Amino acid sequence: MIDCHVHLERGEYTVEWVERFVETAVSRGVTELWLLDHSYIFREFVPMYGSIFGRSPYIDLWFKRKSGKRSLTELLRLADAVRSRSYPVKLKFGVEI
Closest Cα partner for 91 from 9, 20, 31, 50? Predict the structure, then answer.
């Protein structure tokens, strides 16, 4: 079984955080996890969302609160650290756009 929609954004980008997902996957019979986060949390993607500003005060406040909290470098470092280890499930990394 594959779970292709697992967000990491509610925790720290650490191997230990990923291993909690791996443990849960194993306990549920999942054999493959796709670990990803929404593009707006990465500073590099924030300019892409410029066209949404000014249309809704609610969206403006939400976006300012949620966006740009991490960098793609953080995700790449985590992916490298995880790939240097062996796990009982297949792990993939990505960005949800």
Answer: 31
